[in-house]
Amino acid sequence: MSNLIKNGAIVADTWTLVPYPAIDETVQKQAGKVVQFKVTGTEAASPELIAQVQIPAGQVIVPLTVFRARKDELAPRIAAGEIGVWLESFELVEDLVASIDDINTLPLIAYDFPKFVDGRGFSAATLLRTRYGYKNELRAIGDVLRDKLYFMKRCGFDAYQIRADRSAEDALASLRDFSEPYQGAVDEPLPVWRRHARA
Predict the structure, then answer these.
(1) Tens of pLDDT, residues 22-71
(2) Alpha-carbon distance 87 to 43, whole Å?
(3) CA separation, residue 137 to residues 21, 42, 108, 167, 198 (Å)
(4) Structural domains in the chain?
(5) CA atoms within 13 A on the CB side of 41
(6) What three-state secondary structure class fits 79?
């Protein structure tokens, strides 16, 4: 059964996420501690690894580095609406925006949450929706759990690939955890005191 939530329902996934080939990554240490998150400016993949990525037919979601490096090769499929892009948590939304004339040419942008505690995707989603006017599907992938779905929705995500070991039905219910948001956000710009007239 599908673990994809979109438009308030569990739906079949027609897109294929294209990963990098498996490699052995060295563990980074800083002051004796393992560094859990890559930082902005870290290379997502080497040119050799990007060249090795196999892109199947059909609707596919490719890594940002692959999209940028192989855009000419992918141009006919981009025009046909078959190419989506996924960003890793340390990659900048601005790099994606700079690599394409009209961001709404992309039918889908996915943002990878590598760990439950990495919240950079919330800011990225807000930027895509507000500053850059992205209108199409914005999907959360990776360590996507029930607890954060409502807040992801508030920031502009409208699709959620629930982690494989969790229940999509349970996660779907979390989108209704709160009946009335207090603050303004992407999904409802007006705060509650501007939406309700006082007597």
Answers:
(1) 775 555 555 555 555 566 666 777 888 888 999 999 999 999 999 999 99
(2) 12
(3) 26, 27, 5, 22, 36
(4) 4-18+42-195 (3.20.20)
(5) 1
(6) helix
